Amino acid sequence: DAGVIQSPRHEVTEMGQEVTLRCKPISGHNSLFWYRQTMMRGLELLIYFNNNVPIDDSGMPEDRFSAKMPNASFSTLKIQPSEPRDSAVYFCASSLELSREKLFFGSGTQLSVL
Amino acid sequence: RKEVEQDPGPFNVPEGATVAFNCTYSNSASQSFFWYRQDCRKEPKLLMSVYSSGNEDGRFTAQLNRASQYISLLIRDSKLSDSATYLCVVNLQRKSHLRFGAGTRLTVKP
Questions:
Q1: Angle at B70 between CA B16 and CA B63, to 5 degrees
Q2: What is the CA radius of gyration of chain A?
Q3: What is the dihedral of CA A63, A40, A114, A5, to 10 degrees?
Q4: Is the pLDDT of residue A19 over 70?
Q5: Could you write out the DSSP letters of every residue in B54-105?
Q6: Does the pLDDT value for residue A69 go beyond 90?
Q7: Any B CB within 8 A of A33 CB
Q8: Which range (A7-11, A58-62, A109-113) has the least confidence?
Q9: Is A100 an 8 Å CB contact of chain B?
Q10: 3-class secondary structure, A70
Q11: Residue B33: closest CA among chain A residues belongs to which residue?
């Protein structure tokens, strides 16, 4: 199994630009999570989906952030417009619904907003 | 109060040492507990689950104290390859999502 695949690995952009992060979960996993990690705040859950439906988006910092899961094999996290404080590592993770407790993380996207 | 609290460290220990990490959680209704490991610039990976009776996996021992809302991880005979950040993770209930602590950084030196 290829594991959770995220792209891009690194993204450098200027303030105000739109950023789109992509994720392909492990085939057969029904739950998908987006996390953000910074030194100051640690690992924060932004949003998670179950069977492609958003279940809890209370962690999304503000309206500039949006996430979609159009099908079981693809999800996007979009930031528009981006700001320097959005700079972080963004992780996508997936799990089997019945054992949601074991998360498999992708390699992350290192985002730098200048 | 944070939902999951850990001593951030860093812990710097020599090879072969025994080191212990602690973690406290705020919600007494929490049902599942885990330790994840995160190497520098890598993603977190599940290290082990934590069971009420305590459990061991090789050099690693995890323990849970529900009365004190406290979880621990003990590493015996530490190796250079144990250097990483160890994340304490708690699940409130089966249909909830995981809550991650900020992590404890461990460096094992020759």
A1: 50
A2: 13
A3: -70
A4: yes
A5: -EEETTEEEEEETTTTEEEEEE-S--GGG-EEEEEEEESSTTS-EEE---EE
A6: yes
A7: yes
A8: A58-62
A9: yes
A10: strand
A11: A101
